[in-house]
Amino acid sequence: MFAFMEQIEKPPLPAGSKTYTFIEPADFIEDIESYVAKAERKPFFEEPLCVLTEKYSNYGELALKLEPSYAEQQINIEMTKANLKLIKKFQEEKIEFMTRVQLFNKVYKDVFVPPVESVTIVIPGNVHMQFPLDEAEKYVIKQLGQMVQQLKIYEHDLNYLRDQMSTTNLNITRVYKYNIARSKSSQKPGNVSTTSGQN
């Protein structure tokens, strides 16, 4: 029944982009010494470690937005699949049948369902619309396709985001170690730097 979902592909990426949501790429810093020196030469100096830490924090904030959306979409897909199963059952059961419905938490009741010719579906805009069973089936299948595509979009962006976070975290570690090593080196005898100025 759901084999068609495996054939659904994610939509094309926007031209020139690696993601659907804008996510700033994180490049691996090959030469830490040059990277720090370049930052120190800028007119408005920003501590490289602070810049990288802020970047990592921004990635984390974006992840906090994408991850719940991804999880919610998974739930929506399962609910829509259940709707499709029910429509199929209505199509197959042309006589009255019994089913169990949940009234409250852990409270169920057996009810008899007469033959069903149409169902009501909530469409975008929170509008309730009645469909004959065959049209309802087509609509829900189309809806599932769109949901799966959106899920793949979230999945793609989350995977890319995690890669950028890993790269940034590695850069932070390497810059931190470089700063520690440079600090120790400057404290060795003969390497003490002095500053002088005029009042």
From TrEMBL:
<dbReference type="GO" id="GO:0015631">
    <property type="term" value="F:tubulin binding"/>
</dbReference>
<dbReference type="InterPro" id="IPR016655">
    <property type="entry name" value="PFD3"/>
</dbReference>
<keyword id="KW-0143">Chaperone</keyword>
<dbReference type="GO" id="GO:0007021">
    <property type="term" value="P:tubulin complex assembly"/>
</dbReference>
<dbReference type="Pfam" id="PF02996">
    <property type="entry name" value="Prefoldin"/>
</dbReference>
<dbReference type="InterPro" id="IPR009053">
    <property type="entry name" value="Prefoldin"/>
</dbReference>
<protein>
    <submittedName>
        <fullName>Prefoldin subunit 3</fullName>
    </submittedName>
</protein>
<dbReference type="GO" id="GO:0016272">
    <property type="term" value="C:prefoldin complex"/>
</dbReference>
<dbReference type="GO" id="GO:0007017">
    <property type="term" value="P:microtubule-based process"/>
</dbReference>
<dbReference type="InterPro" id="IPR004127">
    <property type="entry name" value="Prefoldin_subunit_alpha"/>
</dbReference>
<comment type="similarity">
    <text>Belongs to the prefoldin subunit alpha family.</text>
</comment>
<dbReference type="GO" id="GO:0006457">
    <property type="term" value="P:protein folding"/>
</dbReference>
<dbReference type="GO" id="GO:0005737">
    <property type="term" value="C:cytoplasm"/>
</dbReference>
